[in-house]
Amino acid sequence: MSELPSEDDVLDGYLPPTSPLMDLDEFGALLGVKRQRAYAMALDGLIPVVRLGRRIYVPRSFLDVAADEAIRAWQRERTTP
């Protein structure tokens, strides 16, 4: 049985690895951008966010959708004469 996070972990913004959300630090690391850029993208509305209290999270599914759209765009460019 998996161990639940402590109350301190929850208050510190802990998300389990299976969470459908990721914080902006993780999002920025995955994209290779600095933390400030990830926050700017969120505040500018360039990425979907979920706000829980004062914390901002990005749905993990967003990366899958964005990657699929990028692949389809690339395929269209290659097949367009």
Characterise this structure.
- The chain has 81 residues and is α+β, with helices and mostly antiparallel strands.
- The protein has one domain (16-79): Arc Repressor Mutant, subunit A (Orthogonal Bundle), CATH 1.10.10.
- 52% of the residues lie in helices and 14% in strands.
- The protein is built from 4 helices and 3 strands.
- The chain has a 3-stranded antiparallel β-sheet.
- A hairpin with a 2-residue loop joins strand 2 (50-52) and strand 3.
- It is elongated and about 50 Å long.
- The mean pLDDT is 83.
Short description:
52% of the residues lie in helices and 14% in strands. It is an alpha+beta fold.
Which tags fit this structure?
alpha+beta, Arc Repressor Mutant, subunit A, single chain
Element layout with pairings:
Elements: H1 7-11, E1 21-23, H2 24-31, H3 35-43, E2 50-52, E3 55-59, H4 60-79
Antiparallel strand pairs: 1-3, 2-3
Number of domains: 1
**In this structure, how is the largest beta sheet organized?**
3 strands, antiparallel
Task: Quote the distance from N terminus to C terminus.
Answer: 56 Å
SSE order, as H and E?
A: HEHHEEH
Rg over C-alpha atoms, rounded to the nearest angstrom:
16 Å
Helix content: 40-55%
By secondary-structure content and strand pairing, the structural class works out as alpha+beta
